[in-house]
Amino acid sequence: MWIKKRRAWDIVPASEATPESVYLSRRQILKAAAAGTGALLLGPSSLLWADDPKKDEGKKDEKPSPYPGRLNQKFKLDRPKTDEKVAATYNNFYEFTTKKSVFEHVDAFKPEPWKLEVTGLCAKPQTFDLDDLRKIDHEERLYRHRCVEAWSMAVPWEGFQLSKFLEKVEPKSEAKYVRFISFHRPEECPGIAQHPEYPFPYFEALTIDEAKNELALLATGIYGKAMPKVHGAPVRTVIPWKYGYKSSKSIVKIELTDFKPETFWHKLAPEEYGFFSNVNPDVPHPRWKQSSERLIGTEERKNTLIYNGYTALVADLYKDMKLEKAGD
Ligand SMILES: Nc1nc2c(c(=O)[nH]1)N[C@H]1C(S)=C(S)[C@@H](COP(=O)(O)O)O[C@H]1N2
Ligand SMILES: [Mo]
Predict the structure, then answer these.
(1) Ligand 2 center to residue 92 CA distance, Å?
(2) CA-based nearest residue to 277, from 328, 239, 312, 311
(3) Which residues approach ligand 1 with their CB closer than 6 A?
């Protein structure tokens, strides 16, 4: 019975990101001091008390929350938002299970603390922790989200433009592609041992121009809160004009390359999943015809839109290319 567990849409609250261990150990030291055990005399920890040690006592160690970000009015939906619980109980996240009930398999997943390394062909490679990411100005964007399995949802993401984030590392002119690597912790992910045929960690990629497109997001939340485990806590990409598998969940590394990187689904089935994987109603996948889609929750069917309805913002990226295959 899943309701006995932590509900799938319960998020890791931003408050859990506070260095509670530091806070507790400070209180423990204070307690020890009060008990006269002389802890304060033990080595350099006493330097902690250069300022008044009591001034933070009883105060919660709170960080400003970036959620919800300011709604970016430019991105409008042509359909109602998907119900939050529906979106959080129907997911693809193969590290946990190949079924849609990911929420029943994420108990062991510990998305905090976390680090995101940005490396490769850039002048300023850097590693970001969650506090660094949450300090970046967040916005909320309503996007359609379309899986190649022909279902879709429409959700409010919380995050910032990938382009703005990449500026921080100063990509070199030789950087032509951007690779995204997801986390790899088999001990927290029951799906990994169950499916040795899958080449985890999950890996994906975009051209640098796609990554710089204003639609491409680095998301740290959804529905006005920090990202729940099922949607790819604590940080993922959102590439709304492409099939869902191009949006990588729970990423730990972004790499700028001068070569075209291999991608997870292309490696497994190159005939079925191309590199570009733009949503295209006219090009069927061998198992799912793409002309229409099922809206999860309401089960309504809608005609699929080329580029998932984002033509005005992305068509220029592909104007000189001939794209034919489902994935292309
Ligand atoms: N690391 C990782 N990222 C992933 C996947 C996955 O299995 N592992 N599945 C992809 C697929 S197929 C889809 S449709 C979307 C689903 O995102 P959602 O569950 O938040 O709707 O995540 C994508 N990102
Ligand atoms: Mo998908």
Answers:
(1) 6
(2) 328
(3) 91-95, 145, 147, 182, 202, 231-232, 244-245, 247-250
